[in-house]
Design brief:
The protein is an alpha+beta fold. It has 7 helices and 21 strands. Strands 2, 3, 4, 5, 11, 12, 15, 16, 18, 19 and 20 form an 11-stranded mixed beta sheet that branches. A 5-stranded mixed beta sheet has the order 6-7-8-9-10. Strands 13-14-17 form a 3-stranded antiparallel beta sheet, with no helix packed on it. The mean pLDDT is about 90.
């Protein structure tokens, strides 16, 4: 049997806040000023933004009752063993957190962590990293499952295989969807990937606590309304906005896709995990081909 809980993972105290966790401005290689970037996101209903310029740390600010910034930075390096890497640090305002170009990826993670940041692996597919390069990495809270800028510019925006390989190897890791916008061609690389975070208040501290605790989901379009474990039926249940497909993805061969009946929307699906599964994560696809991704539910074998 699989040990399950009846807790609805979305029924936590607080409110839902929409956020961008990876975006650039003219402080590094973006084509818009920080003020223009923040105004763009606020006008489109976002509640928080982390400006993550290359090796330039931004500050956490409360700009309005419904809009804040998180401190952020993106660091670049060349690992002597595995090559190019980029890391996003969220919650650190220390410019010295940026590593030297030849620092190992693990050393860069350690330096960001020491500066108080949550660390996310940025666009591993685009960077040319293999899953084997990442499985032994310690200290990251998430990986970018979707990077909109890398997808529209270079067709390498999806890193769900990297994520699954790490989860199957025993890494307990969340995933985020981001823009990584640079504004080189208008705003075609913005508004493509975001997170919905359940937090008790709109402050950097509360948002970071929820990110670290996995109290969020990622999206490029659809919404996930509920995800819980039905212990009586030994099933995982998800409810979402109208979808054409709902995927339950697990380790190894343990995955299942549910397709919407012809001419009808699909808004709920159930899946019974199999023995020896390490985890199950859910992905929902809408009619426009956009996705929403839950964080994984980690499973433990019972008697």
């Amino acid at each position: 049997m699989i040990a399950l809980s009846t807790e609805n993972l979305f029924a936590q105290p607080g409110q839902w806040y929409k956020g961008c966790l990876h975006v650039h401005s003219a402080a590094s290689d973006g084509r818009r000023t920080p003020e223009q970037v923040l105004a763009w996101y606020r006008s489109r209903g976002y509640n928080f933004v982390a400006l993550t310029d290359h090796n330039v740390a931004s500050q956490a600010l409360t700009l309005a009752e419904d809009f804040i910034t998180l401190a952020g930075v993106e660091v670049d390096g060349l690992d002597p063993a595995s090559g190019l890497y980029h890391l996003v640090g969220i919650g650190s305002e220390v410019p010295e957190a940026a590593p030297q170009p030849a620092a190992s990826m693990q050393a860069a993670v350690d330096r960001l962590r020491a500066a108080g940041a949550l660390v996310c692996m940025a666009h591993p597919y685009w960077s040319g990293q293999r899953s084997a390069d990442l499985i032994g990495l310690d200290g990251c809270f998430a990986v970018e499952v979707y990077n909109g800028g890398c997808e529209v510019d270079d067709a390498k925006g999806f890193s769900h295989v990297h994520w699954d390989d790490m989860l199957a190897a025993g890494c307990r890791l969340w995933a985020v969807a981001v823009d990584d916008a640079h504004w080189r061609t208008s705003d075609r690389d913005a508004g493509l990937g975001w997170v919905w975070v359940k937090a008790t208040e709109l402050t950097q501290r509360a948002i970071l606590e929820s990110l670290l605790g996995g109290r969020f989901y990622s999206s490029s379009g659809p919404q996930i309304h509920g995800l819980w474990l039905d212990a009586e039926r030994s099933e995982i249940v998800v409810r979402c906005s109208p979808a054409t497909a709902i995927d339950f993805v697990g380790s190894g061969r343990f995955s299942r896709r549910f397709l919407a009946p012809e001419g009808q929307p699909l808004t709920e699906a159930r899946y019974r995990p199999q023995r020896h599964q390490r985890y199950v994560r859910v992905a929902c696809r809408d009619a426009g081909g956009c996705w929403a991704w839950s964080n994984p539910v980690f499973l433990e074998a019972g008697d």
